[in-house]
Structures are given as C-alpha cells and as structure tokens.
Amino acid sequence: MSAAASSDAPGNGWTGIAPVLLSAALFAWFLSLGPQVAAGETLRLAVPWVPSLGLELAFAIDGLALAFALMISGIGIAVMLHAHFYLRGDRHFGRFLLFMMSFMLSMLGLVLADDLILLFVFWELTTITSYLLIGYGHDSAKSRRSALQALFVTGAGGLAFLAGAILIGIATGSTSISELLAGDGLTDHALYLPILILVLAGAFTKSAQYPFHFWLPNAMAAPTPVSAFLHSATMVKAGVYLMARLHPALSGTDVWFWALTIAGAVTAVLASLLALRQTDLKQALAYTTLMALGTLTLLLGQSTGYAITAFATFLIVHALYKAALFLLVANIDHGTGTRDATLLGGLGRAMPFTALAAMLSALSMAGLPPFLGFIGKELMYAGVENAPTWPEFIGASLVLANALMVAVAAVVAFKPFWRPPGGPLPAEPHEAPWGMWAGPLVLAILATVLGIFPAVVQSLVVTPTVDSLLQDPAEAKELKLWAGVNLALILSGVTVGLGLLIYLLHQPLRRMIARIDEATFSLDGNWDRFLDGLIGLATWQTRVLQNGRLKSYMSITFLTLLVAMAAPMIVYGVWEIPTSLDAPNWIEAAIVLLILAGIALVILTSSRIAAIAGLGVVGVSVALVFIINGAPDVAITQLLVETLVVVLVAVAMLRLPFLTPERRPATDALLALGVGTVVTLTLFAVLAAPIDRRLTDFFELASYTEAYGRNIVNVILVDFRALDTFGEIAVVAVAALSAVALLRGVRGGGK
Amino acid sequence: MNSVILRVGTRFLVGLLLIFSIHMLLRGHNEPGGGFIGGLIGAIGFILYAIACGTEDARAALRTAPERIAMAGLGVALLAGVLAAFFGDPLFTGQWYFIGDQKSGDYIPISTVLVFDIGVYLVVFGSILSLVFALEEAI
C-alpha cells in the first residue's frame, strides 16, 4: 500500500479539514462533560425507538464511556489531520473520509449506548466500516482477502454477542445496560455460563484474542491512518470495552477469571514474541497491539482496585503511544519508501520531528519514567501482588510481555533513527509535512506531561472508570511516579534489563521465532482452505439439488412434502381413519371415475399431449368438486389455472420428442402413492376435528355491513386481507419477471 | 399454428374474452369473480391470440410490454392501499364513496377496494402474459 503520494500531487482542498474540526469539537464537548462525570454523575439521553419491543435509543455517559469517548475523539483529531496529508491527492479521498467518519460515529455510539441491542447495532456498524476501510485498496487481492477475513471473524463474533445480549434480556427482562448494572449481576443465574461464553466469543473475536488473533495483523492492509485509528486505538478495543462494560454483572466467578486471564496472558506473550519476529515496522506494531489487548483482557479478569486502575491507565497510555507510533511509521514509509526494519537506519537527522515524537512514544511504550507508560506498568505489577490466584503466572506473563515491548520499542523507534542503515533506502529520507508529525508529537508530549502530572488523568479518566467497573471510586489507586522501592519497581527494573538484552539479541531471536512460527499450525494458514471448503460445499449441494433435471426437482419437492406431512402425524399420532363414510351420490362417483380415468391416461400414454390432457381432466374434475361443494370462486380459479397450465405445457411440450417408452422406476410410483396416502390421511385428520367457525361467522357478518360486498372470498382478498394480497401479487410479478429473465438468457444462448 | 379458422375466430373471441374478463372483475365484489379471475380470463384471451397469430402480433395488439402492465398494476394496488393513510386510516383500509341516493338503493359505489382489485387484475394479466410470451419466443 503505497498511498503516500508525492508532494506535487494536487491537495485535498479543505474537505480533509472538516473531519479534524468535527473530531476536535466532539473532543471538546466530551472534555466539558468531564467534571460532571468525575463527580459520579451518569448523563443519560433516551429516545423511544421500537417501543413494541421495548427498545430505545438510550445513551449514557459514565466514567468508562467517557474514557473511551475522549480516546476516540482525541485520537481522531490526530489521525484525521494525518490522513489529510498522507492521502494527499488520493482519488477516493472523499470515500475515505465518509468511511472514517461513519466509523468514528459508530464507535462513539457503541461506547455511549445504554442498551445491549443498540450497542450491538453500533458494534456491527464498526465491523462493516472496518471491512470497508481494510478493503480501501480494493484493487489488491490481499486487501480484499484481509477485509473479508476481518468481516467474517468479527461478524461471527458479533452474532454470538447478539445471542448473548438476547439471553441477558431473557435473564433480566430488559436489555438496558443501566438496569443490568444496577441489578444483582448474573453470576448466579442459570443462564450465566451460556451468556458468558457468547459475550466472550464476541469480545475475543473483536479484540483479536488468541486464537482469533490472526485477522488483526492482516487488517494492516488498510492505509496506515486507518490502522492507527481502528486497529490499534479504537475498534479493536470494542471487545475490551464490552468486557469492561459487563464487568460488574459478569465478573467475579472462576470461569470469568480463568477465561480472561488465560486468553489475555497467552495473547500478550505470543503476540509480543511474534512482534519481535516481524521486519515490517507496521506489522511489528500490529502485534504489539495484540499484546496490549491481551494485557487489557488479563487485567479485566481480576476485580481488585489495582488491576482495574492499571486497566484504565494502560488503556489511555496505549492509545496515546500506539496511535502516535503507527502514524510515525507512515511518515517513515512516506519519507524513505520502505518500512523494512532491517534496511532502515540513520533517519534521525533527516526526520527530526518524527524522530523526536517516536522517541517519546517509544519510551512510554517501554514503560520508562517519567512517562505515563511507566505508571501504567507499575500499577500492573502492583496488581500482581494482589492477584487472587496464581500471581506468579500473571506476573511472569506480564514481565515477559513488557520486556518484549521494550525490545520492540527499540526496534521501531530507536534503530531506524539512530543506527546505521542496513542497506540502500528506496528514497532519499526527508521529513513529512507538518500535519503528519504534529499530531503524533502532541500525543507523545501528552504521554510525557501526563506522566509527570498524573493527577489530571487520575481525576478525569481513571477514577471515574474504576467507579464504573467496581462501583466504588475509593477503589482507584493513586497514580504516581515514585511509590518507593517495592516489588513493582524491582519487576520494572528486571523488565527493562531483560528488554535491552532481547533487543541486543533480536536478530538471531527473530530468525528462531520465524522458524518456530512457520512450523506451527495457524488459523490464518488454513483460512483459504476453510473458504474453499465452504464454497466447495455450496457447489456440491447445488449440483446435487439443482441439477437442471425437472424430474429430480419434482422428486425432491414431493419427497420433502411427504416427509414434512408424515413426520408430525407419526410423532403426534393423529391417525383418524373414519369408521363410517357416507356413500357417494352419483355425481361424486362420476367425478371420482373421471379423475381415475385421467390418471390412467397420464400413466399409460406415450404421447405428451395426451398426458397433459389427462392431467387437465384431473384438474377440471377437482374444479367440479369445488362447484358441488359451493365454492364457485375457487372452482373458476381452478378451472382457469388448469386451462392455462395445459396451454403453457402444451406450448413447451409440442416441440419435444415423443416419450420414449422407457420403464419408469418403481420409486416414482411409491413416491406418488406415498404422497397420495399422506394427503388423504391429513384430510381425514382435518375433517375429524370440529371446524372452528369463528372466522367464518365474522366474515359472513362483516362482509356486507363493513365492506359492502356479498362475495366473501373476494372481500377477504381485496379488503380484510388486502396487505397479504398485495404481497402475493408482488410475488407473482417478481416470479414472472424472473422467469422472463431466465428464458431470455436461454434464448440468448447463455446456457 | 397456421389455421385460418382459428385466426378468424380468435379475432371475435379475444374481444369477447376481454369484455368478459372486465365483467368478472367488476362483479367480483358481490358475485363470483374478482381481479384474479378477471386477470386470468383476460390473459387467456391474449394467449389465444398469440397462439393463433404469433406472439409478435399479440405484442403489437397489446401496445405495451406485458411486464410494464404488471408493474403498473403493482403500483395501482399500492396506491389504493396508501390512499387510506391520507384519510387517517391504517394502510389498505377500504375507502368508500356513494354517488347517488344511498337510501333508495339507486347509487353507484366507488371505492379504493375496486382500485386495488384493478391492480390485482393488471398484475395477474401482465405477469402471465410476460411469462407465456417469453416462453413462446424462447422455444
């Protein structure tokens, strides 16, 4: 994806500035709500949506929602500004802005929604906009594959989440999130386990937890501002948000703890190892995003004040440094024409602002003082001491993952700028335009300043978020740079030491990890096989069921009819063989004889036209049955349709050869007899039950008085049930049009 | 089918069938009949014409594409249903007007229900003719 256009391309005009201003306005608005939310208030807005289903467009802003809203709109400013320069002169820039803004608004809707079904709607909207953005470079097959993969994986998870939301609705009687959180939680409910599994399936796929992680690195096929926004700072955190949102209702059980701890730890460690393996800077960052998502999940597994404080802090820390680094990698790509870590080097002089922003962000990522990242890491380690079970496991995973982060931070933000290049660069390095480094630089400076003055983050974001999750603001631990010499500080020292060691050895390690990675099973590697299998299955069943032979269509249709009608009769045992039947009068006997004669003709003749005529005899006889039973409308329709069928079939069949006197298989006869028997038995069963005359009475009474018509059948069709009739005539018209289209295709030699 | 007798006979029959189909449509509210049956009879008239004189002549006699008639019918039916909304009733509620004196029984009723039935007639008529003409031409 070489979207970075040269600087002499025409600019994007002022259209690209509007999204920046919108993001900034939203950010300012959310910021102005800060004091109210920090005071423990929850701001609400509800508009009825589908009152008959109890759904409303309900929004609520509490600490957690505000933290995410600030993050989305704030990062949005930097990303939109960057994109305006990065995609300079791009042909589809308008489309890009539309997708990005749709995404941003959906994402804001997601975090502000106060109703699970509403949340699901926004959830799916982010999935769809993400699909469109990953596939932005739609002329590349890789983009298309990645987009589809992300859509399938997160879409499947979204459906699981919808099922979970409905189960929550059944369990609590409401899909309102506020009511759910105000209740006693779901942990003792009989449906708890299915709810948890379904919700986590949605959250884990969206937030790319192992083993569903493979779609996220592939999603880097999107333009880099998209990766910075959706696939590191915001959308992938939707799953984390969902877990945090439902934390009060679902957490505290062993299943919750183990599911989140193990998924989080495995994702964090595995992702940071794989991050080291990458030579493409953007891919390396993609894997570190996975690591962050794993860490956040791991922290949410616990319910201690430390873990949740660390969660809230790390959420902000990560968004700040990761969005900045992604954008800076775009600048490196723009300035040198490559993102290959083995080639890049010595850019410090040519790209001073990018280098400065990268250095600050990387130090925050590595978790060194005085950056906000350091505080986040200290809190994680402090949480380890207070972890309810297995602190060694949690601690070891965190130290290993964080040490690898230190090494990756050095690979991404130190080596390309201050080490000699590994080879000739495709272009003479030059600094990006101001809009491309200003945003990341501000984010990096924020990470520094907020590290030195953590009280701002504490009061605006961290304490309110902890309040949302644990429902007690006093549980929030204090964010401070110096907490004295304790276990956390020692672990930090170990982390940095180990990280530097890994950096020095990163090249041999990279080769080793690559070998192991290639030898192991991966879902991504089998993705294409899975899709091929799916398409193969569809082709196979089409070939079997839709083989183009009318005879097999008829057999399948009638067999289905036979089974569908016989099964309930056998299961419920409704055999009603009448013991006494009235003797038929001579008219009825004559009709039966006519029908039998028609059938005999159809079976015995070898002339198609005679067979059609035989069928016509049967049809007309049935119309006679209607007439003697007092249903002239039905009889007329039957008669006319019968006439039409004979004409239509005759038109088609006249051109066909005579029937060859082949022996028809006995199975046909069996099928025909079977359907006949089942229909007869059904009729007996129907007749045995007393007729419910309520509707008949109503129509007889109302037909003339209310609808001014004496022909009840027609009055029902055009007045009482007019909407149904309208649907039916629409089907008739569409069926006719489709048939015409198919026939035209035949004539045009299409098949 | 090349038969002079059929061709000559059809000329008269088509007209009669069409008049009969409209008769069935209009009397449908009180006697057996209605848009569906009327549409079928009208279509059969034109199919007879197509068999006797060829689809080309039949299409020419119809003046416009049968698909268009079907779609117009769908539109008419929808319009009849939507009209109710302008009188504050739920969709597809019949609206009635009586021209003349209602008490003496000497009046002509006009209703959206009839308009709806005309829509049904046109859809059935147009759809079946589209299908039959296409089938005739494809084979």
From TrEMBL, chain A:
InterPro entries: CPA3_Na-H_Antiporter_A, MrpA_C/MbhD, MrpA_C/MbhE, ND/Mrp_TM, Proton_antipo_N. GO terms for molecular function: antiporter activity. Residues 593-657 form the MrpA C-terminal/MbhD domain. One of its GO terms (cellular component) is plasma membrane. Keywords: Antiport, Cell membrane, Ion transport, Membrane, Transmembrane, Transmembrane helix, Transport. It is a multi-pass membrane protein. It comes from the Bacteria. Coiled coil: none annotated. One of its GO terms (biological process) is monoatomic ion transport. Residues 52-96 form the NADH-Ubiquinone oxidoreductase (complex I) chain 5 N-terminal domain. It is found in: Cell membrane; Membrane. Residues 113-385 form the NADH:quinone oxidoreductase/Mrp antiporter transmembrane domain. NDH-1 shuttles electrons from NADH, via FMN and iron-sulfur (Fe-S) centers, to quinones in the respiratory chain. The immediate electron acceptor for the enzyme in this species is believed to be ubiquinone. Couples the redox reaction to proton translocation (for every two electrons transferred, four hydrogen ions are translocated across the cytoplasmic membrane), and thus conserves the redox energy in a proton gradient. This is DUF4040 domain-containing protein.
Automatic annotation (TrEMBL), chain B:
Its main location: membrane. It is a multi-pass membrane protein. GO terms for cellular component: plasma membrane. The keyword Transmembrane applies. Pfam families: MnhB. Keywords: Cell membrane, Membrane, Transmembrane, Transmembrane helix. Residues 5-129 form the Na+/H+ antiporter MnhB subunit-related protein domain. InterPro entries: CPA3_antiporter_subunitB, MnhB. It is found in: Cell membrane. The chain crosses the membrane at residues 12-29, 35-56, 68-87, 107-135. Belongs to the CPA3 antiporters (TC 2.A.63) subunit B family. NCBIfam families: PRK12509.1. This is Na+/H+ antiporter subunit B. It comes from Histidinibacterium lentulum.
